[in-house]
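Re-run requested by the PI after the first attempt was lost when the workstation crashed. Everything re-entered from the original request form. Ligand of interest: glutathione.
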Amino acid sequence: MFKLYYATGTCALATYITLEEAGADYTAERLSFKTNEQSSPDYLAINPKGRVPALVTDRGVLTETPAMLAFIAQSFPKARLAPLDDPFDFAQVQSFNSYLCSTVHINHAHKVRGARWASEESSFADMKAMVPKTMGACFALIEQKMFKGPWVMGEQYTICDPYLYTLSTWLEGDSVDINATPKVADHFKRMSDRPAVRKVMDAQKA
Ligand SMILES: N[C@@H](CCC(=O)N[C@@H](CS)C(=O)NCC(=O)O)C(=O)O
């Protein structure tokens, strides 16, 4: 049994959907960012980084989305969520997810988390103003050079798909028109229709 700590509207959605797609036995506990629950002593005892997601397993706590997604894919091989038998194909999955984690997510974070990198109000405004440009450029690159279709890695749905979907949910708020990247827009629609995604979105509303 796993326990996922998440907050709505965050990158934790990718892990949440993947647990559901894998058919894992799990519970999900929502943290409130409004009350800064991610920085509470109780939660810091679980994840000292003060971020979501965190996945509690019987072997300890995992953090960092690409690691959690690979862990779930490897723990539930029958769900076929990654090309586990091919080192190169698996590295491509990791490469895509690492790009989302280390570049796309960080660009997005410049909108509301500028205090991580600067202290002047003018710096925050400058960082925020760049977000539509940097997020738009990342998604253009994904569309033109990385996305194979119909799923991120081609014919097989993988752990790249819920992660791309999750970051695509941020585009509107980042003032990026998803329709400027038609393959990503189509992927977003198809992901939205998947039973696992619907179930998780509904659970988050409850
Ligand atoms: N590299 C981490 C990033 C985790 C992260 O930054 N999560 C954000 C939500 S998307 C968070 O918890 N922010 C809370 C805060 O900064 O206080 C991952 O991919 O899991």
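Saved to the shared folder this time. Helices lie at 12-22, 41-46, 65-75, 87-109, 121-146, 160-168, 182-192, 195-205.
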